[in-house]
Prior knowledge:
The protein is of the alpha/beta class. Helices cover about 35% and strands about 20% of the residues. It has helices at about 20-35, 45-55, 75-85, 95-110, 140-145, 150-165, 180-190; strands at about 65-70, 90-95, 115-120, 135-140, 170-175, 195-200, 205-210, 210-215, 220-225. This is Protein-lysine N-methyltransferase DLAC_04636.
Amino acid sequence: MSDSEEIIEVDSSVLGTKDHWDSAYDRELECFKESGDVGEIWFGKSCLKTLCKEVSKLEGIRKEKCRVLDIGCGNGMTLIEMAKLGFKNLEGSDYSEKAIDLAKSIAEEEQFSFIKYFNDDISQSSIEDNYYDIIMDKGTFDAIALSEERDKMKLLYKQLVERTLSTANESLFIITSCNYTDQELKAYFLDDQKRFEFIQNVQYPVFKFGGSKGSSQTTLIFKKLK
Length: 226
């Protein structure tokens, strides 16, 4: 598939609705209170650890000063892992208030109270312009693509990322997806506006099945162009 080919979309799903995630995180919050179970970690613990470790090793990263946003943070486990690696300026946003409640509870339990979580909706976001050095997404773009208004929401998502990434430094956008291929993500974010430059992939363990090789997710790192 070439970079210019059209993205093939899947059908809309309840996974693209706020009601679904409110209910899901409400259950996970109750479960955490009862048993300490943090709930589902999207793409698994191995993917999470590999992703965060690779980000921490990127050239020019200053862990204590770098402003990081996890967009669509869910239970906040990505930022917990980043905190364990020494990052200090961490924020997570999600449109589900229940997700934010869960993320705050987990961060407090893990004694990472410096992580900031806040409620924010991409369709009417109040996130400050030109602020973050790194924006991370692990599954949020996938969920947006399952909504009934996917075209509108995907455009708002891209505009939000472009608007809120800092122009003072070589800021980074790091996206992990299981619904889109490398080529599809490049085709969407490396558009005619030339707001991003592709830097590298994050390499995950490769599985073998029926003579074929592959990975269950893909992570691309883009640099914002001034």
